[in-house]
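Hi everyone,

Forwarding the result from last night's run.
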Amino acid sequence: QSQLVESGGGLVQPGGSLRLSCTGSGLAVDDYAIGWIRQAPGKEREGVACITLSGDATHYDASVRGRFTISRDNAKNTVYLQMDDLKSSDTAVYYCATANPLVTFGRCPAFLDTRKFERWGQGTQVTVAR
């Protein structure tokens, strides 16, 4: 079964850093634009970052712009999310997902609309606390 697998979550203090990985299993990530989406307890899912199929563009939610960096290494079939200067408000389960190619044509969804993503991974927990 083709799927995405996230890893790299954990507990970190405010101001710290983590790097999340999203690896394709039976799925080639370079066939898709890939997004990172998070869901905090009691809140709706929100798009955090996205990288286009070609890697020529990246998009970020305003809450993480300047602190998070999305990148891809197609040779490793992996997309990364480098998270710096973490805040308690970043605490959430982080998912990666493919942007539906029939809708986005290899680009990232406008406003990182989570309804345009599919093939969700199982998620990885990020907790920012002292």
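Residues 74 and 125 are 24 Å apart (CA to CA).

Cheers,
N.
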